[in-house]
Amino acid sequence: MFFLIKRKQEGHRNHESLNLGHHFFGYQPPSVRVHGFSTHAEIPLRPLEFSARRQSQHINLNWRKMGDNIFGYQLYRRENNTGAFSPLGAPFYLPGEFISATDSLPVSDSVISLEYYCVSKSDGYLESAPSDTTLVFFPENILASPPAEVDFSFENEGKIRLF
To answer: Is the CATH code 3.40.50.2000 the one for domain 48-141?
Structure first.
């Protein structure tokens, strides 16, 4: 809204009237930022102290927020150290200095390791450099098999000879 002052002169007298009007777009304080449209967006700092811990069928991910221009986070994951990292869900925001998230996606029996990293996103949707990559092992999924071409024989006194 805005104020409009009209001045009128009649003879030797001046008359002033105050009219209240509305601006078409309304009033917006100059300090308000509209996310995704800021011309002052800065690349955010990367998350620190990134770690992953396996608890039964879930992976707990923890990291430390750095900076004040954080609009959200994006987690990335890859299996068995092969291929490219893929986003784990959509970007999200959690308040606080120390952030925790849980990966509860099912893991197949062929997965031996999972790798994770995290990036911060600013209000202009700019991504930070990646956090450190962390690794989670699934040793129970490693299939142990005897080496090929191993043979054995029984010797005297019950000893077994491998060759």
So the answer is: no
